[in-house]
Amino acid sequence: MTHVLVSGANGFVGQVLTRALVDAGCSVTGLVRRAASCADGVAEWVHGGKDFAGLADVWPQGLRPDCVVHLAARVHVMHDDALDPDAAFRATNVEGTLRLAAAARQNGARRFVFVSSIKAVAESDGGRPLREDDDVRAEDAYGRSKREAEQALIRYGDETGLDVVIVRPPLVYGPQVRANFLRLMDGIWRGMPLPLGTVRARRSLVYVGNLADALVCCATDPRAAHQCFHVADSDDSTVAELARMLGRHLQKPARLFPVPVGLLQLAGRLTGRLPQIDRLIGSLQVDTTRIRTVLGWQPRYSTDDGLAATARWYRSTH
């Protein structure tokens, strides 16, 4: 039986992933910061040290995972109040990641699956879906920290023999989703007019159930060794299409009206939100050929399936 240690096991992705690992027959330990927060069937290890400080010194006796899936991170935020955002992201996402990798390897782990982000590569696709070997154009502190962590882990793996697997998802959605996706659902639910009618750029997304399924493969399949994978749903929608599908499942038709892209960008400049507008109207598609070819992985759920599940959760809370 494969024993998998999951950091951030009580989070949005972690809850779904740990259940999927248990269903796949794995023994699972969740590394979390607060007690009584893991899914049923998951052993819990609570460690409150900031950025995994002192982790190796308090490693539980007898905990010998075969693999670690590292989800815990300092996440991307729209308005970061850190005096030095790059340093803050680096402390958690680079230095903390390396502490966990080193402690895990010292305690028997042979594979380390690092959940990075497509932001480690770019914020837009430049006219074709992003591949794993594309030139890096990370644009913010979060993306830069994820890229630095990838590079540091690869070096560490080369030096020690730890098998490092990197997974880069785009925006992840599903029940319990937060941030911009939740705000979009809030707007549709309230009947707010949304200026998305002329946005034609396509965006890759990944339903949390699809991401969890891909991560189970990356944790357990020998063919994943030393690979980097992009993971996404099969069908990429425009933001307008996405809003209409969400409206159908929310039973609250999306009220979209056309605004020229140039006016949206002007509004972004005037309000200091141009990066957010650019992400909304720009194309960001990812190429998932590698994981499909190497692992034979296919998304279990369509985007429509994922949106339906997300909308059911949202309706249950309103």
UniProtKB/TrEMBL annotation:
Pfam families: Epimerase. Gene3D superfamilies: NAD(P)-binding Rossmann-like Domain. The lineage of its organism: Bacteria, Pseudomonadati, Pseudomonadota, Betaproteobacteria, Burkholderiales. It comes from the Bacteria. It comes from Paraburkholderia megapolitana. Residues 4-225 form the NAD-dependent epimerase/dehydratase domain. This is UDP-glucose 4-epimerase. InterPro entries: Epimerase_deHydtase (IPR001509), Lipid_A_modif_metabolic_enz (IPR050177), NAD(P)-bd_dom_sf (IPR036291).
